[in-house]
Amino acid sequence: VLGALTFLVPGEAKSATVEPVVPVSQTVTVVHGDTLWSIAADVAPGEDSRDVINRIMQINDLTSAQLVPGQVLEVPVYTQSQ
């Protein structure tokens, strides 16, 4: 049965996978016409906007999606880690 065991030594296997996306944050000041959808698309292109919107609402303790011009939001920004 020993022939069926495989041992992996850390550092020997090289992976061709892309590193995960790492979130950071910044502030955004809402202007007339902004929506959570448009802000999410701007700060995290390529990410699922629903997830980004949920995170924005969570970070800012928002109970509705209604935004007011001049409102300052902390938003996650996603970048590829290097």
TrEMBL record:
Name of the protein this chain belongs to: LysM peptidoglycan-binding domain-containing protein
Domain LysM: 26-75
Transmembrane stretches, start-end: none
SMART domains on file: LysM
Coiled coil: none
Signal peptide: none
UniProt organism field: Candidatus Rothia avicola
Domain of life the protein comes from: Bacteria
